[in-house]
Design goal:
CATH class: Alpha Beta
CATH superfamily: NAD(P)-binding Rossmann-like Domain
Strand content: 5-15%
Radius of gyration: 14 Å
Number of domains: 1
Helix content: 40-55%
Structural class: mainly alpha
Number of strands: 2
Shape: globular
CATH topology: Rossmann fold
């Protein structure tokens, strides 16, 4: 939704292979179908990613590096606000992990 979906739509309109990295399979697949229909680009795919989980970030990065021949653009757009104070299973604060640590780790893993 929002800015991320608009960016993905623009990339797909430019005929780019576009990977939507979403926490929700249902919402992500709906966005993929909408973007494909609006742009005519069949190379829009969904991959599950929760930047609030460093294990999820590592799994996502590993899959992208194995499956994609190259990565030209990375847009880190995930973020949350207003959550109650929560500690993740990795013993990190949830909001800080989702907004900063997860995207930082993802970027560094994808740099190779």
């Amino acid at each position: 939704a929002g800015i991320g979906k608009c960016v993905a739509m623009d990339l797909a309109r430019r005929n780019a292979r576009t990977i939507l990295a979403c926490r929700s399979r249902e919402r992500g697949q709906a966005a993929v179908e909408e973007i494909r229909a609006a742009t005519g680009n069949p190379a829009v795919v969904l991959r599950l990613l929760d930047t609030g989980s460093l294990a999820s970030v590592r799994a996502f990065a590993r899959a992208v590096l194995q499956e994609e021949p190259r990565l030209d653009v990375l847009v880190n757009n995930a973020g949350v606000t207003g959550l109650p104070f929560t500690i993740t299973s990795e013993r990190l604060e949830q909001t800080f992990t989702t907004n900063y640590l997860g995207p930082f780790l993802l970027t560094n893993l994808l740099l190779g």
